[in-house]
């Protein structure tokens, strides 16, 4: 999401790195370039102005100008201000009642119904007994969509008469109390634009349900229009926070850098993919680090701990070090790694990750997986049995070429040879394992 902004800020920081000292002139130029980069990223103009004024004031202070590492001090100031405009720290849900009510609002097309299911799945995995309420009676198939999503995550969905949103919510609240649910998530109706009828209905639902949280679901791809809509929703409903969807897309980043500062309400969660579990708590410090190319190792570790089978990965790691791994093991490893999401999102989390053609790398991984999947179990365990006719069959079955198959086998043999040398102490590494 932040590739363009990250690249531009990287060039700005590079231009001042290594300079013996910073002057008012080169700080002013760097600040000007930062301002242009943020505006190009579709960050709200008022937010940019406040951000730049604060950065410039601190950067021109004696602490930076007389520092032994003025470039690092300047980068730290930019980082701290980025964290500040995004809300300083992660803000958890405030679920104080029993049952607690979370009301989701937003414009049509923001991904509200899918987000309701993602939030329900997130809370269910943390031990909550969740009820989804289908209160969007306007969009065709919205209730059917929520029912289908509910079944996929084993969360019940209350639909009522499928006609009157206020009546549905009223009955759902009573049902939840009788059935010992911890959390009720209301999927309310959206419109293509804000209108009084829509807002009056949402205000009725709010008065009836007395929600602990009123979260607006915002599409990161919409840009400044989303920030303007958020300000109006906040004025009418007194929002408690936001969930920003499509953080994995190619949006310029303006929404996530503007919305909290404009409304005074925090971003609490972000959607980072299409899968139901592609949903994370929002951490301003981690996002700031990612924007500045410093990576986000903490989120990567959390994803790995949550998604990967630790015993399986440890077993495969031992096989690798003993040079006993097969293509079957490699196939299993690819399956595990795919749980962490697309390669592009993983690379963003690694500090100092090299700039590579991620699309080509993703395609290469898909080819490798297709080739291994087209082999028989015997061929995966013992690639030495692969003769010319078998390779032709595998290439045809995987939609690749014999050359692609040979390239994979060569890489596999080279890796095994390297591991053998490592095992016998004939390969020197710049680190201990």
Primary descriptors:
8 strands; 433 residues; disordered C terminus; alpha/beta; 8-stranded mixed beta sheet; Four Helix Bundle (Hemerythrin (Met), subunit A); 20 helices; flat; Rossmann fold; 434 Repressor (Amino-terminal Domain)
CATH top-level class of the largest domain: Alpha Beta
Backbone structural class: alpha/beta
Biggest sheet character:
8 strands, mixed
Strand content: 5-15%
Radius of gyration: 26 Å
Number of helices: 20
Strand order of the largest sheet: 3-2-4-1-5-6-7-8
Helix content: 55-70%
Report the count of strand segments: 8
Q: Give me the CATH fold name of the largest domain.
A: Rossmann fold
State the distance separating the first and last CA atoms: 34 Å
From the spread of the alpha carbons, the general shape counts as flat
In CATH terms, the superfamily of the largest domain is: P-loop containing nucleotide triphosphate hydrolases
Whole-number count of domains: 3
- H/E element sequence: HHHHHEHEHEHEHEHEHEEHHHHHHHHH
Give the overall average pLDDT: 79
What CATH architecture label of the largest domain applies? 3-Layer(aba) Sandwich
**Residue runs with pLDDT of under 50 for 5 or more positions:** 427-433
């Amino acid at each position: 999401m932040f590739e363009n902004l990250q690249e531009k800020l990287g060039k700005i920081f590079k231009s001042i790195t290594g300079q013996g000292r910073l002057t008012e002139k080169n700080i002013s130029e760097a600040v000007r370039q930062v301002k242009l980069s943020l505006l190009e990223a579709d960050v709200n103009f008022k937010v940019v102005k406040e951000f730049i004024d604060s950065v410039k004031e601190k950067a021109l202070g004696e602490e930076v100008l007389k520092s032994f590492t003025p470039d690092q001090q300047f980068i730290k100031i930019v980082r701290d201000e980025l964290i500040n405009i995004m809300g300083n720290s992660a803000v958890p849900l405030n679920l104080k009642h029993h049952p607690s009510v979370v009301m989701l609002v937003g414009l049509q097309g923001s991904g509200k119904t899918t987000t309701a299911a993602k939030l329900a799945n997130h809370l269910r995995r943390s031990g909550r007994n969740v009820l989804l309420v289908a209160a969007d009676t306007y969009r065709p198939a919205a209730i059917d969509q929520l029912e289908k999503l509910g079944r996929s995550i084993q969360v019940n969905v209350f639909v009522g008469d499928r006609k009157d949103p206020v009546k549905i919510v009223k009955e759902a609240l009573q049902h939840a109390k009788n059935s010992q649910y911890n959390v009720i998530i209301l999927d309310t109706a959206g419109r293509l634009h804000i209108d009084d009828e829509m807002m009056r209905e949402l205000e009725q639902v709010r008065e009836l349900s007395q929600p602990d949280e009123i979260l607006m679901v915002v599409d990161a791809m919409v840009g400044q229009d989303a920030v303007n809509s958020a300000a109006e929703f906040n004025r009418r409903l007194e929002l408690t926070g936001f969930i920003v969807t499509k953080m994995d897309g190619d949006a310029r980043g303006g929404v996530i850098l503007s919305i909290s500062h404009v409304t005074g309400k925090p971003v609490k969660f972000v959607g980072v993919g299409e899968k139901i579990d592609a949903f994370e708590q929002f951490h301003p410090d981690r996002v700031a680090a990612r924007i500045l190319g410093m990576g986000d190792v903490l989120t990567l570790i959390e994803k790995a701990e949550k998604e990967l089978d630790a015993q399986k990965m440890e077993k495969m790691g031992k096989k690798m070090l003993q040079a006993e791994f097969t293509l079957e093991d490699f196939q299993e490893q690819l399956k595990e790694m795919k749980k962490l999401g697309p390669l592009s999102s993983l690379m963003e989390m690694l500090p100092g990750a090299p700039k590579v053609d991620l699309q080509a790398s993703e395609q290469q991984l898909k080819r490798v997986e297709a080739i291994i999947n087209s082999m028989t179990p015997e061929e995966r365990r013992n690639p030495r049995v692969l003769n010319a006719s078998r390779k032709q069959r595998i290439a045809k079955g995987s939609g690749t070429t014999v050359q692609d198959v040979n390239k994979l086998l060569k890489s596999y043999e080279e890796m095994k040879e390297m591991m053998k040398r490592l095992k016998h102490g004939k390969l020197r590494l710049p680190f201990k394992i």
